[in-house]
Amino acid sequence: MTLPTCKVWTSHLTVVNWRRGQIHISGRAKEPVVTTDPIVLSILSAFSTPKKISDVVQQFPELDQEDFENVVEQLLDIGALLTPATLNGQAPELWWEVHDYWHMLHTATARGGVGRLTNQKSVSAPPAVRPGWENASVIELPRQLAELAPASLDQLLDLRQTVRRYAKRPLALAELSRLLWSGMRNTQSPRENTTLQMEIIRRPYPSGGSTYSLELYIIVPPDGLETVEPGVYHYCPARHLLERLESIEQHVSQIRRNALGAAGVERQDGGQPLIFALTSRVGRVSYKYEGNAHALIAREVGCVYQTLYLLCANMDLAPCALGLSGLGSSELAEIGGFDPHLETVVGYMLVGAKQI
Ligand SMILES: Cc1cc2nc3c(=O)[nH]c(=O)nc-3n(C[C@H](O)[C@H](O)[C@H](O)COP(=O)(O)O)c2cc1C
Predict the structure, then answer these.
(1) How far, in Å, from the CA of 271 to the mean position of ligand 1?
(2) Mind giving me the DSSP string for 149-216?
(3) pTM
């Protein structure tokens, strides 16, 4: 390969990590450059702004020119270093941020391992039912669901829509109960999967490997839910009840600001929607699927969104999925007393009584 004479620079998609004592430098190509020599990192970082190779070589007088050029050639080969020619209209550098790019590659091409069971036998999966909070007061949700006018699934799919206008009335406890019973409850007790050595359950929406990692927290505003005090609640899908958490006012205000702001409803005169925050107990999924966990969790959140949207269409409620995810994770974690790296916010949704 003849090295280019034009300016060259490091791609922002280049990733460096250390595995078993070796430095792995990954670019667009499937195989990384693997080395134990840190000077390769120095060369990579010398191109953090566009420079001519002939200028950079002078920064490494201790290196033989041929060795230097070999390193540059390898880095160009894997796309860790770019030239104007490689940055054409189709270049991933134009369209991706580094974390999303690697996430996509990892999940689309199955880079990385799958199956914690095979290599970490001492780790056990988190239980299917999330342990509750000691001394948390609970609100039993009614299980007698009123008859609704029959609607076909096709009709509901046509009716399904995002609604951001709320009636000046709290959501009825029976409405919330139906939504959660039909959409989110555990429909089976945990049972041991002996092959996986983990408990699995069932819910009304699908989940990769029946791992069901999602938990639902509900932020109830003043006059948001009939007969229920404002605050933060966890929905227990095994027992179909709400557990009240010790709220931290400033955190709740921040989550509310973010969530209502994302839907542009912070200054509405109508009623106030409930905020649904979905978390994932990530270990439930990564225990089995390791490097594919995040992709599976995101898909599962999509299943929950559509399930709740269809139920809202059936009940004439106002749902709005939100693109916010990590925002509020640490605040909610502090309220719930959990580690946001192990149980992470992965989706938000607003649900309220619909303005007719
Ligand atoms: C993953 C996802 C993220 C969304 N994020 C937001 C959001 O942050 N704010 C908002 O007002 N609507 C949000 N929505 C709702 C979309 O704007 C809405 O679904 C889209 O405009 C189509 O309208 P429809 O749902 O009424 O068919 C989101 C929907 C999805 C599925």
Answers:
(1) 20
(2) ----HHHHHHH------B-SSPBPHHHHHHHHHHHTS-SS--EEETTTTEEE---SS--GGG---EEE
(3) 0.90
